[in-house]
Amino acid sequence: MSNQYLVAALYKFVHLSDFADLRAPLLAFCEARDVRGTLLLAEEGINGTIAGPEQGIRAVLAHLRQDPRLASLEHKESWADSQPFYRMKVKLKREIVTMGVPNIHAATMAGQYVRPEDWNELIDDPDVVVVDTRNDYEVSIGTFAGAVNPKTASFTEFPEWVKEQSREGGVLHGKARIAMFCTGGIRCEKSTAYLRTQGFDNVYHLEGGILKYLETVPEENSRWNGQCFVFDERVSVGHGLRQGEYTFCRACRMPLSLADRESPMYEEGVSCPSCHGKHTEEQLQRFRERQKQVLLARARRQRHIGVRAQQKAQPGPDAPAGAEAAVESRVAARH
Asked: What domains are defined for the chain?
């Protein structure tokens, strides 16, 4: 693995009153060790995805855990064949995952953790409502069998969905037990905390998220169907966290399957079945010129970085940290 990059996804809800003061030293520490990605700091905690040489990542994690408030910080690891991020960013935010509802204290109000080894038994119970808290485009490529898809475009839409579905006739109305899951666990910390403020007492969430489940539970025992969307150039992973078949549409950033890429509506770097017919002729010309430069850079075995300035779209506010860097890296030649 000497030629691979270690990717670490981390988060922790904890009160950081001095979070603004942590930014500059943390950025300098990461850059000095050739670690890249994005870390978000807020009064409610830290959230991030970083990648780099193994020694550098281990050093950053140790540095963070030297702070007594972050001593119990957990992270999830995977490997990439090349650096999935262009640069290192440490950003100051109001929330480390944006729900937009004040006074949701996930550090103290989150629901009950369920270990990946115990998750199947919980969701197999017909009296348990299983909810996928991710956005619709993430759910579209994989989810747990029988899970409810709220069909949200952003995590900020989730509270309204809960209110609607709590009314008579809704999927949450009169339900005593609700199980929630997301990619790495961070959204579920907030979503279960929010449900508790709405009067739901028996709320559970998958500890470590889908990624930990796919890493831990043998495929033959799994209730997972499809792939898990991730916010970096791997695009998707499956059981054992093996990289999946999906790529990104460079025009709209939607994940593309092999079938999508065989569609007559797909033009590499220009359009896909999700965005075909939605761009102006001027945009299409710009996309084609960008793709031409990408192919030229690829032929030179270089990454096409110059197109970053053209990318104005941002990931959803609920995306794990690192998604903004992924927006930049998605337009580069695939590694």
From this structure: 5-92 (3.30.70.100), 106-224 (3.40.250.10)
